[in-house]
Amino acid sequence: MTQAYDHLSEWFEYLNDDCDYPAWSQYFCNGLRALGAGQAGLELGCGSGAFCRALTRAGYVMTGVDLSQPMLSKAERLTRGEGLFVRYLCADAARLPMREQFDFILAPNDCYNYLMPQKLPAAFKSAAAHLKKGGVFWLDVSSAYKLRTKIANNMFADDRDEVTYLNFSRLYGDRVEMDVTLFVRRADGAFDRFDERHVQYIHEEETLVACLTAAGLEVLRTEGHLGEAKEKSDRLNVICRKR
Known about the structure:
Blueprint: H1 12-15, H2 21-34, E1 40-44, H3 50-57, E2 61-66, H4 69-81, E3 87-90, E4 102-107, H5 120-129, E5 131-142, H6 144-151, E6 154-159, E7 163-172, E8 175-185, E9 191-201, H7 205-214, E10 217-223, E11 235-242
Parallel strand pairs: 1-2, 1-4, 2-3, 4-5
Antiparallel strand pairs: 5-11, 6-7, 7-8, 8-9, 10-11
């Protein structure tokens, strides 16, 4: 079984075409403008670069970081294909290697769900160290409600002409382990099978707020997906400013 996103990277945006990346990206752009964020941004867990590309089109100067090299390769191809430039770096969001500081850091779409709870304090301190004073830190995770009541102990499937996606998920205390299988059609019509394991950790809002505060970040507000009410929202946004 390969690492998370070794093969899913090629199909990630295609299989998530129902999540409305344009509206999601506009939500971040509107929020950053309302907070007076500067132009230099860092995205943690950038994946195949959907948000980096959108923010670049909106006028921001973006750097994207991800631990998956296949995801970054896909991001490079998609970014070049749109005639855009984004600097992409392969790095662990918990231990950022660059020296510069940014006007804002965005960590959308489950980046920190892949970090164990005990790693959060150091990870948030690392992020804060790469923010300018007054800079914005925006964290977006799958909510505890979503992982416990919708994802855990469930099965998901998406069957298309080119690829079939299967996801079998099981809850283990503070985490959900997901066994993902892809069947990808070859040119001759046969299918290749690829298997990956994904582990997402459940982070309660109180824990996130406490760790962020300890890292020197002031929590401005928390809200659900696209600004909706937090209760029973699939996502939790925590918007902060560096003190």
